[in-house]
């Protein structure tokens, strides 16, 4: 069982975007056409999230030329370049399937009042390089924080004497 978890852990991204139901997002997806590769943007409302680990997915819905289009994306897929949050929506349920029956303005979620649009990322796993972590730990044990504090005090004293 540990072998499966270790293989899945290797396939996961280090940081994933914080996705919430009801948010309007832009998903930048890499598309390969022949020898060329380009990025296509899919913008819509997140209507569901499901799964966990490597199999975690989210579904984005938008209306294109009067027809509802839904795409499901893997969160840890290497094809997804980035996910931008455009609007923070107010959702009171886990799945917004009722948006499928609605048309026009009724097919949108209400916007959260006073919500800031932040592209937060959740750290799933941290890459630890053996040489760098030991250096960072030894630097923390040395009295490094004390030196900058003394420098600040000296600067304040000099400004007082100049005035």
Looking at this protein, list some descriptive labels:
single chain, alpha+beta, SH3 type barrels, 2 domains, 5-stranded antiparallel beta sheet, 24% helix
Largest sheet data: 5 strands, antiparallel
The topology string of helices and strands comes to: HEEEEEEEEEHH
Basic shape: globular
The total count of helices amounts to 3
Indicate the CATH architecture of the largest domain: Roll
Name the structural class: alpha+beta
Please provide a brief summary of the model:
The chain is of the alpha+beta class and 163 residues long.
Kindly describe this structure.
The structure is a single chain. With 163 residues, the protein is an alpha+beta fold. It folds into two domains: 122 residues, SH3 type barrels (Roll), CATH 2.30.30.790; 33 residues. Helix content is 24%, strand content 36%. It contains three helices and nine strands. The strands form three sheets. The protein has a five-stranded antiparallel sheet with strand order 5-4-3-2-6, with no helix packed on it. The protein has a two-stranded antiparallel ribbon with strand order 1-9. It has a two-stranded antiparallel ribbon with strand order 7-8.
Write the layout of secondary structure elements.
Layout: H1 2-11, E1 15-17, E2 24-33, E3 36-50, E4 57-64, E5 67-74, E6 80-87, E7 89-90, E8 110-111, E9 121-123, H2 130-141, H3 146-162
Antiparallel strand pairs: 1-9, 2-3, 2-6, 3-4, 4-5, 7-8
